[in-house]
């Protein structure tokens, strides 16, 4: 069901039991879902439940869900990701065994073919596509540290697909033979103002813990059409190369000559996630735990090798930033751990990508990156201020509707905000770094007595210089932190969980956050996010000229 496209037409009273029952929520009249038109909201903090598992325990390598179950060069760790538009997807998988030790010998990626056979019928397949393969290494020039070489990673792009269509596929090398079982995926709907994926799951800072398994179980039960992972994938860098792990790497291993990482955790993660992401496309953006430095100052090698990205299709030259359409939504995935300055390649790409967006075809504009700009937790407080100062004005000028972030291991929803001020045309910022990883849950707020960080501790060495300063206006003028929950923070709670975005039409979208400790269908936070294109000033492109309308 869809509402009228005009944000003023559905009177608030109409969005009650009748509408919501048809949408499948079955809520009573008195439980009307709030909308951003009701805001800005008074800030709400849900007290931390001390009975929750604030710490998380990683799945061991002996767990049957992460052990290698295939033989020889049979495909494993199979996943689907989107290209820039509905008519193309990527299929990725791994063949052969990875190695870790002091005398590793990389596999030859040319020794196994990269083939996908697919079609609209389960059998026989009617199409075949070939792709490319690679092997990556994680090397350390220090005595006593073990090196790693991956299995053969394959990426194959399928093209010419129909929108909103179920396809069956097998991947592997038919000449060995070593082909997978039959899997399936559904393409995205065609882009348009009335065409959207039914449910988009959003999660960040996932890791591979017992809490992660709960998150993914609940997420899967919500039957998403697409998964967004907002950085920090496996947390392999909480381990030494000998497999010894810790909740706090710097605390436990202060004398390590380099920040080590135990790359087999990536293989464990790929095996665990295969049941979901071999059927449901996953789109990933890098987080700080993907940096994984190694010899020759190389970084992000596992991240850039294991996932397929629509970088080339979206005009990007990097795996760290790209864009894609999912029905009437244009997603922009940005990198916080590479150059984001206005003179850099990413910013110039972002300018061009935004200028190319046709809001009559993709009315919704959603941006994601890992570290939040608007988080009120003590952890990572104002850490990405340099990035905000460079990019916020541009994103605001093009009317970005929603921003998803991770990094902070908790949940927070903002009021519409721009430059720390309440603004009815600013984005709604949603921090979902609560996927369940091994590091501790964030439970302290910067506005609580004694919790405001020293400004000099705010910058992250990988994000930029010292940009966060005392506020110059508003209730926190002259201070680095507010002395109460800031006005721009609408709702915050420390709990593991995930979110579901359901875009209903060109102006209405339902956002729901689910907590791990609840039953699958119990809601932790929920709101309709309403666009007001008739009231908010948005830049558009007209005949190759950027104009304001």
Automatic annotation (TrEMBL):
Compartments, record wording: Secreted
UniProt KW Transmembrane helix keyword: no
One Pfam family in the UniProt entry: Metallophos
The Purple acid phosphatase C-terminal domain, residue ranges: 480-526
Keyword Mitochondrion: no
Chain ranges of the Calcineurin-like phosphoesterase domain: 199-411
The Purple acid phosphatase N-terminal domain, residue ranges: 75-187
UniProt xrefs under InterPro entries: Calcineurin-like_PHP, Metallo-depent_PP-like, MPP_PAP, PAPs-like, PAPs_C, PAPs_N, Purple_acid_Pase-like_N
Cofactor requirement: Zn(2+); Fe cation
Catalytic activity: a phosphate monoester + H2O = an alcohol + phosphate
Subunit structure: Homodimer.
Family according to the record: Belongs to the metallophosphoesterase superfamily. Purple acid phosphatase family.
Protein name: Purple acid phosphatase
């Amino acid at each position: 069901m869809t509402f009228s496209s005009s944000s003023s037409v559905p009177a608030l009273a109409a969005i009650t039991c009748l509408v919501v029952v048809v949408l499948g929520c079955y809520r009573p009249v008195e439980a009307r879902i709030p909308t951003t038109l009701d805001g800005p909201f008074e800030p709400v903090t849900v007290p931390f439940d001390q009975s929750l598992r604030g710490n998380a325990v990683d799945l061991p390598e002996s767990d049957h869900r992460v052990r290698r179950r295939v033989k020889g060069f049979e495909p494993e760790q199979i996943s689907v990701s989107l290209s820039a538009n509905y008519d193309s997807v990527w299929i990725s998988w791994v063949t052969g065994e990875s190695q870790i030790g002091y005398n590793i010998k990389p596999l030859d990626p040319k020794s196994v073919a990269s083939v996908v056979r697919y079609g609209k019928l389960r059998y026989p397949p009617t199409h075949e596509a070939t792709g490319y393969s690679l092997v990556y290494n994680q090397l350390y020039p220090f005595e006593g540290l073990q090196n790693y070489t991956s299995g053969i990673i394959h990426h194959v792009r399928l093209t010419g697909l129909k929108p909103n269509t179920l396809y069956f596929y097998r991947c592997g090398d038919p000449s060995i033979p070593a082909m997978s079982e039959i899997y399936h995926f559904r393409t995205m709907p065609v882009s348009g103002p009335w065409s959207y994926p039914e449910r988009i799951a959003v999660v960040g800072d996932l890791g591979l813990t017992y809490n992660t398994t709960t998150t993914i179980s609940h997420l899967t039960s919500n039957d998403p059409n697409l998964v967004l992972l907002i950085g920090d994938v496996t947390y392999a860098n909480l381990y030494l190369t000998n497999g010894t792990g810790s909740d706090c790497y710097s605390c436990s291993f202060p004398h390590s000559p380099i920040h080590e990482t135990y790359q087999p955790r990536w293989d464990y993660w790929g095996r665990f996630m295969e049941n979901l992401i071999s059927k449901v496309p996953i789109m990933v953006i890098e987080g700080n735990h993907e940096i994984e430095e190694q010899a020759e100052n190389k970084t992000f090698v596992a991240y850039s090798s294991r996932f397929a990205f629509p970088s080339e299709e979206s005009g990007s030259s990097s795996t760290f930033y790209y864009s894609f359409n999912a029905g009437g939504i244009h997603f922009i995935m940005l990198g916080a751990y590479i150059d984001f300055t206005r003179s850099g390649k990413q910013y110039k790409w972002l300018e061009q990508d935004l200028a190319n967006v046709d809001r009559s075809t993709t009315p919704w504009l959603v941006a994601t990156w890992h570290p939040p700009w608007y988080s009120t937790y003590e952890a990572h407080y104002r850490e990405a201020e340099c990035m905000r100062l460079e990019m916020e004005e541009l994103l605001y000028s093009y009317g970005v509707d929603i921003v998803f972030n991770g990094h902070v291991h908790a949940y927070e929803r903002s009021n519409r905000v721009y430059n720390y001020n309440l603004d009815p045309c600013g984005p709604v910022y949603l921090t979902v770094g609560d996927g369940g990883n091994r590091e501790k849950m964030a439970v302290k707020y910067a506005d609580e007595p004694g919790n405001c960080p020293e400004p000099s501790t705010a910058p992250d060495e990988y994000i930029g210089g010292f940009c966060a300063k005392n506020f110059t206006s508003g209730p926190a003028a002259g201070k680095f932190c507010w002395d109460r929950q800031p006005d721009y923070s609408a709702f915050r709670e420390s709990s593991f969980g995930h979110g579901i975005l359901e875009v209903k039409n060109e102006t209405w979208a339902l956002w729901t956050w689910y907590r791990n400790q609840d039953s699958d269908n119990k809601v932790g936070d929920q709101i309709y996010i309403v666009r007001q294109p008739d009231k908010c000033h948005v830049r558009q492109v007209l005949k190759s000229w950027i104009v304001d309308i």
